[in-house]
């Protein structure tokens, strides 16, 4: 499992878009993953909240890593769905994804995205998606 | 309608995340919107394709603008779903969203995202989501 | 709250399609609902498993009731997404939905659908959707 | 192709749930399918409209058949998402699904569901989902 976590970190660090946005893979378990994203001005929309596109990036990538860890190797996200619950602001976002249904051909994951403001986590989006083995 | 398009462009240009990523609002109609995103190295994942998170940003924002134009004013995306069809590479991405079901309380939009390589458009993702009036 | 549960049961019992399929509202809380559906031959697909359409009915209706209970009154489901995890067979299905994000204008719910075979629950589908107040 | 259509009809006719609900497979093409469902009292919810669960059955099954025809054989729906646009009433419902992204490992389909009242089709729901080959 240590090897798998190291593998996950290696993959994550080789994603230019994750570096560009400023995200970090802050936890990787046998079937779950946590990403953290400091909120900078670059990530905002016109009202000063985090843009939905930055939140959807977190859902996409946290689901991909949770699914890939559950599958034990290279994996791709094939689809996901996200519901926005409230505007996101604060110091950073945390996305936690967990594999719920694990098969050989697909893993279905759920993901919760929290905005952390003054040390308090507020649920701002939930997502659900499918990860498949890379062919 | 010219005013509405100008309003849409004004909103788009005041989104720091859209500028940061490098996206442009290249068309705005009474119930549809087109976004264009030049593919730069910053937008890629570990295999050199565009990261799903950048594609999901396009879906989120194209749907938001198509829905907002159909609603005629300030609007929010409440949820969307995206399916990735093939890896995205080339010179740029184009996302086209269209309002399909227009009510007072919600507009449901479909969105197609194309990767343009050597001048040829290839469908690389489709999305569907809901836009509601800003309260 | 007793009144709200009685209200939920009254609504459920006045749904011809729920009676036709044979579903029961087996639990109703302040922000969650449980539906139970005995598996009969009428509900099956060509391989003898429960048809996805019967499972999607359960997701649709369990989400609607969980959301309506959280909203405190008449409500409509506006959208949902479902992932099928494994073929469903056994004596009955149980769908449990829970409101996760509760606002005035919408409630977002998650739902798990289990197939019960020889007394053992197996997770066969998960869903996520939005409920809005009836206008 | 005639063989494939005959194969599709044979599969459809061996689905007890489709017979129970009263649906018919009214068209089957190389990558699309149409289902028709007469509106009977059994299919309604508490306000006299067609229950969302009956509409979601149509989306599930039309997507499955369109995807299976595109894949050329036995197939399963792995997930879908549906947005309800307006209450459904009239003489019957028609669901038309079309494969949009066709690969070896998955087909992604869009589906439109119309309510037909006094001979006029009204779009009442749209859906999008994934079909995979049966293993």
TrEMBL record, chains A, B, C, D:
Q: Which NCBIfam families match?
A: unchar_dom_1
What Pfam families does its record include? 4HBT
Q: Which residues form the Thioesterase domain?
A: 47-120
- Name of this chain's protein: PaaI family thioesterase
Reply yes or no: does the keyword Glycoprotein apply: no
Provide this UniProt record's keywords sorted from A to Z: Hydrolase
Superkingdom field: Bacteria
| InterPro entries reported in the protein's UniProt record | Acyl-CoA_thioesterase_PaaI, HotDog_dom_sf, PAAI_dom, Thioestr_dom
Species for this entry: Acidiphilium iwatense
Statement: the UniProt record of this protein carries the keyword Lipid metabolism: no
């Amino acid at each position: 499992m240590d090897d798998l976590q190291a593998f996950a970190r290696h993959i994550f660090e080789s994603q230019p878009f994750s570096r560009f946005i400023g995200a970090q893979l802050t936890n990787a378990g046998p079937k779950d993953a946590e990403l953290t994203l400091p909120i900078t001005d670059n990530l905002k929309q016109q009202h000063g909240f985090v843009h939905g596109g930055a939140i959807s990036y977190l859902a996409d990538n946290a689901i991909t890593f949770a699914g890939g860890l559950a599958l034990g190797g290279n994996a791709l996200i094939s689809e996901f769905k996200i519901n926005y619950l409230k505007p996101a602001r604060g110091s950073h976002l945390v996305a936690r994804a967990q594999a719920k249904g694990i098969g050989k051909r697909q893993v279905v994951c759920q993901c919760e995205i929290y905005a952390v403001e003054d040390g308090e986590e507020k649920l701002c989006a939930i997502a659900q998606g499918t990860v498949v083995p890379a062919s």
